[in-house]
Amino acid sequence: xxxxxxxxxxxxxxxxxxxxxxxxxxxxxxxxxxxxxxxxxxxxxxxxxxxxxxxxxxxxxxxxxxxxxxxxxxxxxxxxxxxxxxxxxxxxxxxxxxxxxxxxxxxxxxxxxxx
Amino acid sequence: xxxxxxxxxxxxxxxxxxxxxxxxxxxxxxxxxxxxxxxxxxxxxxxxxxxxxxxxxxxxxxxxxxxxxxxxxxxxxxxxxxxxxxxxxxxxxxxxxxxxxxxxxxxxxxxxxxx
Lengths: 115, 115
Hints:
The structure holds 2 protein chains of 2 kinds. By secondary structure, chain A is mostly beta strands.
């Protein structure tokens, strides 16, 4: 029973063509995160939502935006994808902010290719 | 500036032997450490964690050791099984400062357990 679902599993887009990745959760968690993972690198936090409060990481490019219309769904929008944005994008949720008693639950990821 | 480092990209071990995966960190604010395991085509899943007030945490075949003075932790798997073959990510979080409530990951170590 998938609890954090990411669609699509693979996404191909063209250079400069906007693309949206989606994430949904059945856990009713308050926090939703988006991580970017490039090949052989550490997953890098882009931003997170705590309920409706959006928190952007300082080094996340403006090209990346996010929306959370309700508790269950969160979207990652890449306004003008460049070749360097090709990566695995991981969505994760937690009940509260990550810490001693709060684990992150991850989706299977969306592998984005930019042609 | 990579605050969590896993310097071994890969590790190969014989079934039944011990697997030791290492992780170093630089941010002294980190006070909670986790290991996640990732199979191909799946998202990372939580494996085991340790608080900075402890130096060891054990869960079945998995033990995590923390050396705060060296800013080093390790994951021991005994005995190793072929089903343990996966990518293992070390992660850290702090309960204060700019990293509050956000997991910072290492780049992962690919563990292969040979029958």
